[in-house]
Amino acid sequence: MKFELPKLPYAYDALEPYIDEKTMLIHHTKHHQGYTNNLNASLEGLNLEGYSAEEIIANVVELVPENVRQTVINNGGGYVNHNLFFFIMGPQNNELKGEIKQAIEEEFGGFEEFREQFEQAAKTQFGSGWAFLVVDPKGKLKIVKKPNQNSPLTDGDIPVLALDVWEHAYYLKYQNKRPEYVENFWKVVDWSEVNKNYLKALNK
Ligand code: MN3
To answer: Which of 12, 41, 65, 100 could bridge to 24 as Cys pair (CB 3.0-4.6 Å)?
Structure first.
């Protein structure tokens, strides 16, 4: 079994000026490729053919022996987190709409309230990590933050929107200004992809 680096559905410069071409190129071809290669290496001999990477991460305690578990959490988490992150961004559909719009308004009281809470999670994640919008097992939307490459899948939540706040995601352009990167994220979110993820999570 070999997981593959997915091709991006847009060019590396498509998210300019908010996320620069060089950052996207390195992030995808070096970091995401690295997680992919290391995940494949860590799964060798485990006989997990037939499982998706998401299934392996969601059931990592049951499926993966302890001696390689942390390596799989780090690299498999890196693999699935980036598979989500790169695909919920794009140069189009940057306006919130669809079922996800209604759900955000119902759960958080409005987009502005949601945005504030999500940005707060992303800005206050200490060190490397992520902010996620997830669907919990009851079908409710929730904001969570995670250190390192930990995934909400391991808690039984399904992430539908993700923001990478590792320095490799923004340092070339924003240096220490993580808040500015976080605030610009909304300009490149492809809400039609988030909506698809949301509907899929509800029908699990
Ligand atoms: Mn990253």
So the answer is: 12
Encoded amino acid at 108, one letter: F
Length, in residues, of the chain: 204
pTM assigned to the model: 0.97
- Using the mean position of ligand 1's atoms as its centre, give its distance from the Cα of residue 138 in Å: 29
| Residue 106 CA, ligand 1 centroid: distance in Å | 31
* Residue 82 placed within a domain: yes
CA diameter of the chain = 49
User: Could you tell me which residues come within 8 angstroms of residue 149 by beta carbon, excluding any fewer than 6 positions away?
Assistant: 35, 73, 74, 75, 77, 78, 81, 130
Indicate the burial class of 158 (C-beta count within 10 angstroms; 0-12, 13-18, 19 or more): buried
Q: What is the dihedral of CA 181, 187, 192, 194, to 10 degrees?
A: 20
Q: What is the pLDDT of residues 18-77, one digit of tens each?
A: 999 999 999 999 999 999 999 999 999 999 999 999 999 999 999 999 999 999 999 999
CATH number of the domain where residue 61 is located: 1.10.287.990
